[in-house]
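Posting this for the archive.
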Amino acid sequence: MKSICDQCVEAATAGTAKCLKDWWVFENFTESQLQELQTIGIRKDIPPGHLLFSQGEPAGELFLIRSGRIKLSKVNEAGAEVTLDFRKNGDILGEDLFSDVDIYPVSARTMEQTVTCGFNLMSFKKLILQKPEIGLNVIKSMSSKISSLSNRIESYAEVTLEGRLYSVLSNISKEHGCIVGNAYKLPFRLTHDDLAFLVGAHRVSITKAMQALVAKGRISCENKIITLKRC
């Protein structure tokens, strides 16, 4: 793993600033603020299946996904690992650090070759103390992100399990899916256990709801790869 972003080492300032500007958390930043961030940036090339951080581990780093995909999971009280979410290019990991969380509440594992740019928490806090406007811009960006995430919560307002399941699958497909003809195709497998946790239902009920969606032609599923017809 590379400890410093190679673009910074090569002094490609404009390119690195453009890269940071792509991340939603820094979208309100000025060029001078982006240059400040470059001085503390850390770049990592991570192979598939690598555990980026574990649930309960001391939290000390913020990660921005430049490429690849990461699965977030959590071990429940029964000792079973459940899938919580998937993060892709442009997403941020470790945002709980902004709330003074001292341990990671979930585990993060790469699903494919992944590149991240990140910041050590102490270095980031020090920079915010020196440049308060940077902290204000982070707050603005996170407020916008919370608004977009509310769409996922709205999926639970669906009366039927079938409707809730389709809404959740639709949100995941729009965020992570590839457009194939008139459909969204997920690039990774989702088990019925994964879906049960994401929707908040029993596995047996998910199986029945999936069968109903397939029968109605709203989705198709082959080798646990789900495809949704685009509306």
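Residues 1-15 have pLDDT under 50 and may be disordered. The helical segments are 6-9, 13-21, 31-38, 121-130, 132-154, 161-176, 192-199, 203-215.
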